[in-house]
């Protein structure tokens, strides 16, 4: 479907209702009560908001399926965008540090979102697996979990190589890679 000219001028996110970011703007650095590290807004090691932030002022979302993010132990935690997902959807998002992996009861019901040769786009995967709803959306009941790898390309290759016996059986998507 082609985008109308006036929609293009507004931008792709003009239809979204955004919360005020005033609580973030006025935040100052504080010491995390749990780990005693100096942070601003939230602690990316403890995954908790700092006392100067009212957690009710930050949107909290619920995802239709559990999300697991695998990161390499040598990655700098403060540079990872994965922590944002945990802060916004704490009941649905877990971060696992390589070599630790989340439990996969049925790899065929897990979706690894990662660009690799032969990987399907998410929409192709939905069509092939019969998970498309009548309205063209996704029926998430067929998916046990979605897995992302949040690391540099070098570290990602190490993760894929170490767990190729497991990850190779995952259906993969190559078009929605998170960078």
UniProtKB/TrEMBL annotation:
The keyword tRNA processing applies. SMART domains: DTW (SM01144). One of its GO terms (cellular component) is nucleus. GO terms for molecular function: tRNA-uridine aminocarboxypropyltransferase activity. InterPro entries: DTW (IPR005636), tRNA_Mod/Golgi_Maint (IPR051521). Residues 39-176 form the DTW domain. One of its GO terms (biological process) is tRNA processing. Transmembrane segments: none annotated. Keywords: Nucleus, S-adenosyl-L-methionine, Transferase, tRNA processing. The keyword Transferase applies. Its main location: nucleus. Its EC number is 2.5.1.25. It is found in: Nucleus. It catalyses: a uridine in tRNA + S-adenosyl-L-methionine = a 3-[(3S)-3-amino-3-carboxypropyl]uridine in tRNA + S-methyl-5'-thioadenosine + H(+). Belongs to the TDD superfamily. DTWD1 family. Catalyzes the formation of 3-(3-amino-3-carboxypropyl)uridine (acp3U) at position 20 in the D-loop of several cytoplasmic tRNAs (acp3U(20)). This is tRNA-uridine aminocarboxypropyltransferase 1. It comes from Geodia barretti (Barrett's horny sponge). The lineage of its organism: Eukaryota, Metazoa, Porifera, Demospongiae, Heteroscleromorpha.
